[in-house]
C-alpha cells in the first residue's frame, strides 16, 4: 500500500511521475464513481494539466515539500476560487467560490494536486452522508453501507483509491466518523490550529478542517502543511507545527474510558480493549477512568450546534448567495420561500430549533448547555493533568446500512456520542481502525490536551504498526 508520504518520496526519486499518479486516480474515479459517488465536482482534467506543468517546471520537486505532486480531494464546504461550492445543498447548487480557503491554499502551495470537491451531508449536518441534495455516497468497502458523515465523499474517495488523502471538516465528528467507517485515519486538529478562512461556517466555536489519510504519518504531514496562524482568521494561532514523531510512548500515561460506562456494540468494546492492551505494553501507565460529563457530550453538542448553525446559515437567504429564484410577493415571503425550497429537511429542522434555542429557549436551553460545555472542558483538562492521552471509541458500531433510521436518546446518545466531546472542549483527536466486524473496520479514538497532536500521532503510530492483520490486509486494497 502506498500512502501520500510514500508517493511524495517515489515522485522525488523519479520512481513514478506526477501525471501517472494523477492518471491512476482519474482512472479509479472513472471506474468507481458510478457506485461510490464520492465527488460532486470532478477536477481531474485540471489536475492532469497541473501535473504536466509541474513536471515541466520541476521547481516544486526541488523544494522540501513532502507532498508535492500528491493528488488529493477537498470536501465541498471548503472554498476553491472559481470552482462550484455547493455544501451539497440546493441553495448553493450554482454558487462559485470567490476565493480559496487558506488551508487548501497551503496544500496547493505545497504542490498537492486537487482531483475534485467531495460529497457531504447538506451543510455538513449529519453522520451518514445521506442528506446530500445530490444523493448519498456509498462505502467503497461495502457499497450497501454508508461511508459515514458528514465528510462522506472525502473518506470514500481515499478508500476507493480516487486520491491519496482528503480534507474534511469536523465540528462534531465529521472527519473521524467517516474515516473510521472506511478504515482510514481521521484527524481533528486543536481548535485554532488550522485556519477556518474559506470553510463554510457551521458551528463556529468548534469547526476545524481536518484530514482523512491512509496512514498516521500522512496525517502529520498534511497537518504540518496546512496548519498555522492566518491573519484572516482571528481564532487561528501560532503554534509549533513540527510533528517529527516516533512510535515511542514509553513515558506516556494513558486513560481508557471504562467500557462499563460505554453504550456500544460488542465489536466496539472488544476493539477498545485490544487497543488498550496493546498501548499498555508500550506506555508507562494505563488506567481506566469514568467521567460523568463525557456522557452528556452529544446532548450538549446538539443544542450548541443548532444554535450556532441557525445563526451561521442566516446568510443563505437566497439573495446574498445562491438561491432558488423562488417567486414571492414581498421580501419576507421571499426569504421564507427560499428557506423552504433551498434547504433539505434536516437543515430546516436544525436551523428552526437553533432559532428557538437562541430566543425563547435562551435561558432554559442554550445557557445551561453552554455552562455544561465548559464543565465538560474543565473535567477533560483536569483528566489531562493526570494522563497524556485518552482512549475511547469513535462510533457505536460499524458503518450502518444505507437507509437505517438515525437513533438518538438522551441516555445513550447517537452516532456522535463519542466524537463531540473533543469539539466541545476544542481538543485534538484522532481516529483509526483497529478491529474488524463483518468485514468492516472498527475504529478507536485518541484525544489529547490542546496542541498535543504529536502525542496523538505517536500513540496512533503504535496502534497502526501493531494493528490486526485483517486491517493491514484491507489496506492492500489501496495499491498503486
Ligand atoms: N454528525 C454531527 C452532526 O450531525 C457532526 C457534523 C460535523 O462534524 N460537521 O452535527
Spell out the blueprint of helices and strands.
Elements: H1 4-12, H2 18-36, E1 39-42, H3 44-57, H4 59-62, E2 71-75, H5 102-109, E3 113-118, E4 138-139, E5 142-146, H6 152-159, E6 165-170, H7 176-181, E7 185-188, E8 208-213, H8 216-226, E9 253-257, H9 266-282, E10 285-289, H10 292-295, H11 297-312, H12 331-342, H13 345-358, H14 362-386, E11 389-393, H15 420-424, E12 429-437, E13 440-448, H16 453-465, H17 469-475
Parallel strand pairs: 2-3, 2-6, 9-10, 9-11
Antiparallel strand pairs: 1-3, 4-5, 6-8, 7-8, 7-12, 11-13, 12-13
The structure holds glutamine (GLN).
Q: How many structural domains in the coordinates?
A: 2
Largest sheet: 11 strands, mixed
Q: Under the CATH scheme, which architecture of the largest domain would be assigned?
A: Alpha-Beta Complex
The CATH superfamily name of the largest domain is Amidase signature (AS) domain
Poorly predicted tracts of residues: 476-480
Radius of gyration: 21 Å
Annotation, overall tally of beta strands: 13
Q: What percent of the residues sit in helical stretches (DSSP H or I)?
A: 40-55%
- Mean pLDDT across the residues is 94
The computed structural class is alpha/beta
* Termini separation: 7 Å
Major beta sheet, strand line-up: 1-3-2-6-8-7-12-13-11-9-10
- How much strand? 5-15%
Q: Which overall shape is indicated by the principal axes computed on the Cα atoms?
A: globular
Q: If helices are DSSP runs of H or I spanning 4 or more residues, what is the number of helices?
A: 17
CATH domain fold name of the largest domain: Amidase signature (AS) enzymes
Q: Can you list the ligands bound to this structure?
A: glutamine
The first-level CATH class of the largest domain is given as Alpha Beta
Order of helices and strands: HHEHHEHEEEHEHEEHEHEHHHHHEHEEHH
Amino acid at each position: 500500500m502506498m500512502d501520500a508520504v510514500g508517493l511524495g518520496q517515489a515522485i522525488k526519486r523519479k520512481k513514478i511521475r506526477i501525471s501517472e499518479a494523477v492518471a491512476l486516480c482519474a482512472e479509479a474515479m472513472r471506474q468507481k464513481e458510478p457506485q461510490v459517488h464520492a465527488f460532486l465536482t470532478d477536477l481531474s482534467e485540471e489536475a492532469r494539466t497541473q501535473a504536466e506543468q509541474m513536471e515541466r517546471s520541476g521547481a516544486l520537486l526541488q523544494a522540501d515539500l513532502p507532498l508535492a505532486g500528491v493528488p488529493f480531494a477537498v470536501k465541498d464546504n471548503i472554498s476553491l476560487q472559481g470552482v462550484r461550492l455547493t455544501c451539497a445543498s440546493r441553495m448553493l447548487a450554482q454558487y462559485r467560490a470567490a476565493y480559496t480557503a487558506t488551508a487548501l491554499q497551503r496544500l496547493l502551495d505545497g504542490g498537492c494536486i486537487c482531483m475534485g470537491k467531495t460529497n457531504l451531508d447538506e451543510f455538513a449536518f449529519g453522520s451518514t452522508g445521506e442528506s446530500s441534495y445530490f444523493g448519498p455516497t456509498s462505502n467503497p468497502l461495502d457499497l450497501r453501507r454508508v461511508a459515514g458523515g458528514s465528510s462522506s465523499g472525502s473518506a470514500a474517495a481515499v478508500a476507493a483509491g480516487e486520491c491519496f488523502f482528503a480534507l474534511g471538516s469536523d465540528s462534531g465528528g465529521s472527519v473521524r466518523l467517516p474515516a473510521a467507517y472506511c478504515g482510514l485515519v481521521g484527524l481533528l486538529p486543536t481548535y485554532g490550529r488550522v485556519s477556518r478562512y474559506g470553510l463554510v461556517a457551521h458551528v463556529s466555536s468548534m469547526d476545524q478542517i481536518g484530514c482523512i489519510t491512509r496512514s498516521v504519518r500522512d496525517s502529520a504531514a498534511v497537518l504540518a502543511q496546512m496548519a498555522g496562524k492566518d491573519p484572516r482568521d482571528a481564532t487561528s494561532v501560532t503554534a509549533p507545527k513540527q510533528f517529527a514523531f516516533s512510535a515511542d510512548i514509553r513515558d506516556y500515561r494513558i486513560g481508557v474510558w471504562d467500557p462499563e460506562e460505554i453504550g456500544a456494540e460488542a465489536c466496539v468494546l472488544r476493539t477498545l480493549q485490544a487497543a488498550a492492551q496493546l498501548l499498555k505494553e508500550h506506555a508507562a501507565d494505563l488506567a481506566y477512568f469514568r467521567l460523568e460529563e463525557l456522557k452528556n457530550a452529544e446532548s450538549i453538542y446538539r443544542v450548541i450546534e443548532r444554535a450556532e448553525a441557525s445563526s451561521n446559515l442566516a446568510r443563505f437567504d437566497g439573495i446574498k448567495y445562491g438561491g432558488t429564484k423562488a417567486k414571492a410577493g414581498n421580501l419576507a415571503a421571499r426569504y421564507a420561500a427560499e428557506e423552504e425550497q433551498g434547504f433539505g429537511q434536516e437543515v430546516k429542522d436544525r436551523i428552526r430549533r437553533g432559532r428557538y434555542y437562541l430566543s425563547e429557549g435562551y435561558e432554559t436551553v442554550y445557557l445551561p448547555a453552554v455552562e455544561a460545555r465548559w464543565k465538560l472542558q474543565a473535567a477533560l483538562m483536569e483528566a489531562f493533568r493526570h494522563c497524556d492521552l485518552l482512549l475511547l471509541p469513535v462510533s457505536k458500531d460499524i458503518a450502518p446500512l444505507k437507509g437505517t433510521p438515525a437513533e438518538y436518546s438522551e441516555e445513550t446518545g447517537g452516532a456522535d456520542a463519542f466524537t463531540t466531546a473533543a469539539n466541545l472542549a476544542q481538543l485534538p483527536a484522532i481516529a483509526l481502525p483497529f478491529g474488524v466486524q463483518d468485514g468492516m473496520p472498527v475504529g478507536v479514538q485518541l484525544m489529547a490536551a490542546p496542541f498535543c497532536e504529536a502525542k496523538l500521532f505517536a500513540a496512533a503510530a503504535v496502534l497502526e504498526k501493531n494493528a490486526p492483520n485483517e486491517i493491514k490486509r484491507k489496506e492492500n486494497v489501496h495499491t498503486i
